[in-house]
Amino acid sequence: MLTITIPQTELFDESTEEFIYIKEQTLCLEHSLVSVAKWEAKWKKPFLGKDEKTEEELTDYIRCMTITQNVDPKCYYGLTNENILAVKQYVEDTMTATTFRNQPGGKRNKEIVTAEIIYYWMIELGIPFECQKWHLNRLLTLVNVCSIKNTPAKKMSKKDAFAQQAQLNAARRKKFNSLG
Question: What is the Cα–Cα distance from 115 to 40, expressed in whole angstroms?
């Protein structure tokens, strides 16, 4: 969870030619599958991916991340550059010590990943729905770990199988010869 404080500020709304007064507001935020699903339901496009988000889309994602109750909707107009930077760093944090080696010949999946795809993965891998509230990067790491652990071991090539068998036979002969 990330906690940010939006400072008290005064802004001018050019369309209404009025000042907007924003009280200081502390927000608790969660970057989770639930937040992504809310955002995608509104914007009708995938949150994850390479497409740049507009300022409005990013601000709305912060709204979707907010778990604080009874927030004044105007407070989001007072987000500072420091608030935005803190949110971006939090969203990009892996939140885990797990790392993955790039496997040679590994194919990159070009599937468009949406909240529903991630829910599908959770169901397919037997990941409980309580995990939808985890930091999204941590959840995706768990999905990756489960996928790797559920993948059958690669078959050994005939050459490697013969070499392994020859080593075992040599070790057995050596042990047998040392007994007699």
Answer: 8
Residue found by looking up tokens 């990941």 in the block: 127
What is the distance between the alpha carbons of residues 47 and 53, in angstroms, rounded to a whole number? 9
Q: Which two tokens stand for residue 84?
A: 């935005």
* Rounded-to-integer distance, Cα 22 and Cα 75, Å: 6
Task: Give CA–CA dist 14/107, Å, rounded.
Answer: 51
**Residue 132 near residue 32, CB atoms below 8 Å:** yes
**CA-to-CA distance for 146 and 127, rounded, in angstroms?**
9
Distance CA 94, CA 36 (A): 16
Residue percentage of the chain with pLDDT more than 90: 57
In DSSP terms, which residues pair with 29 in a beta bridge? 2, 66
Beta strands 9-13 and 2-6, pairing class: unpaired
Stronger pLDDT, 159 or 140, i.e. the higher one: 140
